[in-house]
């Protein structure tokens, strides 16, 4: 819908089916010992923040031209991609804001969900879109919650060159553009993907 069209137009692959294009996530293998300095999910955010500002500007004009609500947004809900930094600060905790809106990374083994095995659905902490099912979560040994598959097209991807010589694929909420983490090619079957996600970008809703 509106958001997905916008994503595609921004030269970013919104579908992992198209992920093969030239991306080479030279990432840390899931089985590698997690070093304190290792940041398989993270990266410098200053350049990314700058880019976000530009993207937000484009998103605001784009969304104003589109009438349908994106998936996961009910009628009357705000268009999340047009919310200002100040509005996000009011809605989120300091950590949630830093990670989701400024592309930060929480320290390994410190997040709320890195070792959680509770059945349920992990939603976007910013807009409540369901992103990952607990059944696709696996122990990656990295210290970040890891999944081998997102829910539908609710997660989109984007090339991240914030670390020189280390191209990575950033993953974002498809509805509100929240930074979630990165996806790597060393995950388990059936997808072979490892979605390395910050706990602070998620909200687990337990299965009743
Ligand atoms: Zn979201």
Automatic annotation (TrEMBL):
Residues of the region (Disordered) are: 61-82
EC numbers: 1.8.4.12
In the record, biological process GO terms are: protein repair; response to oxidative stress
List cellular component terms (GO).
cytoplasm
Q: For this protein, what reaction is catalysed?
A: L-methionyl-[protein] + [thioredoxin]-disulfide + H2O = L-methionyl-(R)-S-oxide-[protein] + [thioredoxin]-dithiol
Q: Which cofactor does it need?
A: Zn(2+)
Tell me where in this chain the MsrB domain is found: 85-207
The record's section on SUPFAM superfamilies has: Mss4-like
Q: Which UniProt keywords apply?
A: Metal-binding, Oxidoreductase, Redox-active center, Zinc
Composition bias type Low complexity, residue spans: 61-78
Q: Does the keyword Oxidoreductase apply?
A: yes
Query: What is the main EC category here?
Result: oxidoreductase
Task: Recite the UniProt cofactor note for this protein.
Answer: Binds 1 zinc ion per subunit.
Keyword Chaperone attributed:
no
Gene Ontology MF annotations: metal ion binding; peptide-methionine (R)-S-oxide reductase activity
Membrane-crossing residues?
A: none
| PANTHER family (UniProt xref) | METHIONINE SULFOXIDE REDUCTASE, METHIONINE-R-SULFOXIDE REDUCTASE B1
Q: Which family does it belong to?
A: Belongs to the MsrB Met sulfoxide reductase family.
Q: What is the role of this chain?
A: Catalyzes the reduction of methionine sulfoxide (MetSO) to methionine in proteins. Plays a protective role against oxidative stress by restoring activity to proteins that have been inactivated by methionine oxidation. MSRB family specifically reduces the MetSO R-enantiomer.
What this protein is called in its record is Peptide-methionine (R)-S-oxide reductase
């Amino acid at each position: 819908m509106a958001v997905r069209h916008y994503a595609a137009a921004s030269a970013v692959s919104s579908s992992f089916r198209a992920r093969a294009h030239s991306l080479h996530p030279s990432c840390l293998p899931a089985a590698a010992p997690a070093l304190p300095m290792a940041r398989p999910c993270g990266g410098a955010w200053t350049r990314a923040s700058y880019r976000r500002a530009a993207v937000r500007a484009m998103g605001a004009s784009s969304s104003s031209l589109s009438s349908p609500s994106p998936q996961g947004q009910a009628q009357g809900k705000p268009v999340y991609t047009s919310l200002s930094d100040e509005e996000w600060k009011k809605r989120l905790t300091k950590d949630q804001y830093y990670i989701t809106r400024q592309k930060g990374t929480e320290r390994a083994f410190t997040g709320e969900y890195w070792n959680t095995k509770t059945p349920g659905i992990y939603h976007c902490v910013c807009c409540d879109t369901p992103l990952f099912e607990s059944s696709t979560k696996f122990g990656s040994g990295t210290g970040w919650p890891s999944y081998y598959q997102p829910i539908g097209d609710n997660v989109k991807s984007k090339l991240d060159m914030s670390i020189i010589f280390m191209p990575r694929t950033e993953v974002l909420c498809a509805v509100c553009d929240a930074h979630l983490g990165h996806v790597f090619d060393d995950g388990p079957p059936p997808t072979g993907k490892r979605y390395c996600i910050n706990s602070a970008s998620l909200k687990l809703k337990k299965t009743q």
